[in-house]
Amino acid sequence: MVNTDLTSRRARQAAEQVSDPEMPMLTLADLGVLRDVEVTADGTVVAGLTPTYSGCPAMAEMRADLAARLRAAGFEKVEVRTVLSPPWTTAWITPEGRRKLAEAGIAPPAPAPGRTGKPVALQLLATRPAVPCPQCGSADTTETSRFSATSCKALWRCRACLEPFEYVKEI
User: Fold this and answer.
1) Contact at 8 Å (CB) between 28 and 62?
2) How far apart are CA 168 and CA 98, in angstroms?
3) Which of 35, 76, 120, 128 has a CA-to-CA distance to 113 between 20 and 30 Å?
4) Across-strand partners of 154?
5) Cα–Cα distance between 142 and 160 in angstroms, integer?
6) Could you give the CA distance from residue 129 to residue 112 in angstroms, rounded to a whole number?
7) CA separation for the pair 134, 6 (Å, rounded)
8) What global pTM score does this model have?
9) Kind and range of the H or E element at 78?
10) How far is the C-alpha of 165 from the C-alpha of 135, rounded, in Å?
11) If you ran DSSP here, which 8-state letter would residue 47 be given?
12) What are the pLDDT digits (tens) for 67-120?
């Protein structure tokens, strides 16, 4: 198989349809963990995935789902690589992904702190972002648990509508 732009686009389109196993309303592309998809000269599709954090338990399922989707799209040789550098950040969640999270009742993450490579100022008191309720939009919310169904989410509650909701933690 010859590595053509059309073949690479077809492989990427197939890969971009794979859902995240922990937040199925998002694709791996929406989440920003699908890093690269290319087709080598011998026809092997090489896809790169970056975990949201080290030890992410969903990585094995993401890899298997991605490989299966590419094989179903007609690509016989598939290789899924883990890409650790640069590390994933919530800034990579696409605007479409943020919209899908909010529609599913999960508050999208606030902007992540910038990575400048310079020393970070120490803050002795914890500062929490204002997390608007994805149900009613109120900013009168409170964190009830730093951890939720997955390590990358926290559990919050809206004081205005009294609904609990999950919040994707910024990284």
Assistant:
1) yes
2) 10
3) 35
4) 167
5) 11
6) 11
7) 39
8) 0.78
9) strand 78-82
10) 8
11) E
12) 999 999 999 999 999 999 999 999 999 999 999 999 999 999 987 666 556 665
